[in-house]
Design goal:
It contains 12 helices and 18 strands. By secondary structure, the protein is α/β, with parallel strands linked by helices. The protein has a 16-stranded mixed beta sheet that branches.
Length: 493
Amino acid sequence: MSDLLTQDIDRTSERLSRLRVDDSGSLSPSETTYRDVVFDANHHLGTLVDAVGHLVTILQGNTLYAQAVCSIAVHGWRQGPTDEEYHGYLAALDTNLAHLLGLVHGLTSLLLDVAQTGFYQPLPKTLTQALSMDCLRCMVMDHILVPAYSTTENALLSPSAYGYPSASLERIALDIRGGDWLQLLFDNPSRVRWVGLHASDDCRPRESSWSRAMYRIAATATRVETLVLSGGQNIDIETLGYIMKHGFQCGALSAMRAFSVDTLLGPPAVHHLFFGFAQSQVTHLRLVVNHFNQWAPGFSSAYIDLLASLLPHLEEVILDQIGMTEVSQLPGNLHDWALAFRQIPNLRRIGLASLFVLDVHGPCQACPESDSGSDSDSNDSESEHEEDVLLDEKILPPESPMSPIPPPLSCLDHNLCVLAAWTETFLDEHLQCPTLAEFWLLGVRAPATSRFAVSGGGVGYRQHLSTGDVKFMVYQTTRDGWWWERLRPVEAD
């Protein structure tokens, strides 16, 4: 075991041992008791096996330490040993993790994320133990391979033998492979409020495990408020649209308020998916419309017109991307986009991927054109307006009281100024929507040294209505994250 890993485990032991004596004289965990156990992805598989085994030994020595643990996260490993040893180490990790979970009876959150290994990994004992835990409220499984339970060697791991999952589960995010096993996770979804499912295999057959799981959710998960679906072209949109319509019609999905899907949809597919949402109460919608620099077929502002007609209660629209490496501005002109957004009567929040405007983390950039159809004269006037906005005290940070001249802007700070100027121009000259409260540009990583408000949610602006030449002004705002994020999603607000 490496010295660094040994030090990490020693620190874990030290934190776990911080106990206090209560009024009765018995030991009980204090406020500083170690509650969260995290195995990061910097370990080799062999050292990860040793680290989990070491923690098992610590917790076996004192049940109070084990009772204090509330969450466990395993983020995979950097690389494995030789091929001859790999399967043996993987089996040992599975055994050690299952043993660890058997000791922490108060565990409420479990994350097994091995995506960085590049393969779906079999951890059947760990998964079986996790699903039988009475207190578990949050479970995230990424790149987990579930064995075929119909085979003789795995018969003892059959879900039917354990009666799981526990009714305590409230949040569940799954990217797993495993034949007919997936839908068994939703045999008792009575308390599930947040569901994230990734279609790792082709889900087009209506009898696929993924489709059966969705049928079960739509029929019985009466408390689900947020549904996040991913998997690109593996998702059968026609089947999914039918399932969602059935769920809304029967009332099982009456609590749903937020929906996210990341497959590229053309206008006909958008209609197939959302035609049943007219009977829903969904207010928050996220669509991934660009995959790896490729726009959804026929994507334009007409998407927003269609969504406005299909989702009557819509308040938040997020247009996002996955895997983009270069800037690609929204197809069409901003006037058409603004007109489409105004068709949503209750619109409170808009979110766009920042790469739909400019590359904030790239070199210093000029402000993008506000209208792709404008002529050179209007471009000149827009540039002058943008320069005025950049110098506006609302956007530039205040000067330090210790120095009358602020330090020069970095490329990131300059681009954030440009982004703010673009936003104010869009809101004031094009959108002009009094109901809008916030406008967000997503995918901007929070810098350590920037003087601007960049948060876990990206770059955000609050709209303020005022009198005078500029009616729609912007002020920066922050948030910790978003409702569709699987690790620590915030409530849809």
